[in-house]
């Protein structure tokens, strides 16, 4: 019985440490792609703790009933925490030129690592009114804290004035530089993480 008691305490301590680890990673802004594996470990450690508790106290009817209730509540909370913690679809980026936010439209994506949720719908037409920017102005592409993409690149850029693709697209650390030539442009951007990827588009008007 002493061994079971030690195992019970070890499971509880290790489970709490994993919960603390997840919280630390989240607030430090580390990538979510690494989190599911630790979440599974946390789940099984806490499950083991409650299972051992029920077994050890099986001779005491009242405690057994209480532990069963706690077990059910704990499992529900863990499921909500684990699956609610990871977004089922890709996050929306914030695209800005100076202090002006540029509207974006979500395209296809594959998200949530091993629990991948994929959508391959074609890119929708970006906002009908393009955002005005200055020639050669830097356009920043940012994701929420903890979801920063490992790579962000522009797949292609179309000049709506004549429908021709524009080559030599300038990129730098997840940012793009607006063309020097005046006109309306559509950017199709691909962002990727360790196991996920997503693309989106936005429209600008260089004046």
Gist of the model:
36% of the residues lie in helices and 29% in strands.
Describe the secondary-structure layout.
Elements: H1 2-28, H2 35-56, H3 61-85, E1 94-97, E2 100-102, E3 105-111, E4 117-119, E5 131-133, E6 138-142, E7 151-159, E8 164-165, E9 171-172, E10 175-177, E11 183-192, E12 197-206
Features:
alpha+beta, Immunoglobulin-like, 2 domains, 3 helices, 12 strands, rod-shaped
Description of the molecule:
The model is unreliable at 82-86 (pLDDT under 50). It is built from three helices and twelve strands, in the order αααββββββββββββ. It has two domains: 2-85; 94-206, Immunoglobulin-like. The strands form two sheets. Strands 3, 4, 5, 7, 8, 11 and 12 form a seven-stranded mixed beta sheet that branches. A five-stranded antiparallel beta sheet has the order 2-1-6-10-9, with no helix packed on it. It is rod-shaped, with a radius of gyration of 24 Å. The chain has helices at 2-28, 35-56, 61-85; strands at 94-97, 100-102, 105-111, 117-119, 131-133, 138-142, 151-159, 164-165, 171-172, 175-177, 183-192, 197-206. GO terms for molecular function: acyltransferase activity. This is Acyltransferase.
């Amino acid at each position: 019985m002493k061994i079971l008691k030690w195992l019970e305490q070890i499971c509880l301590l290790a489970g709490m440490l994993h919960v603390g680890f997840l919280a630390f990673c989240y607030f430090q802004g580390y990538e979510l792609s690494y989190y599911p594996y630790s979440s599974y470990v946390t789940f099984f450690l806490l499950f083991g703790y409650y299972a051992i508790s029920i077994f050890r106290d099986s001779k005491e009817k009242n405690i057994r009933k209480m532990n069963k209730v706690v077990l059910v509540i704990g499992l529900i909370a863990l499921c909500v925490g684990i699956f609610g913690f990871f977004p089922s679809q890709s996050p929306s980026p914030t695209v800005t030129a100076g202090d002006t936010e540029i509207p974006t439209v979500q395209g296809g994506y594959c998200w949530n690592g091993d629990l991948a949720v994929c959508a391959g719908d074609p890119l929708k037409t970006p906002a009908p009114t393009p955002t005005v920017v200055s020639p050669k102005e830097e356009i920043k592409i940012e994701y929420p804290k903890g979801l920063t993409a490992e790579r962000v690149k522009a797949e292609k850029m179309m000049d709506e004035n004549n429908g021709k693709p524009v080559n030599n697209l300038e990129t730098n650390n997840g940012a793009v530089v607006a063309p020097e030539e005046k006109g309306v442009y559509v950017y199709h951007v691909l962002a990727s993480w360790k196991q996920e990827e997503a693309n989106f588009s936005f429209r600008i008007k260089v004046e």
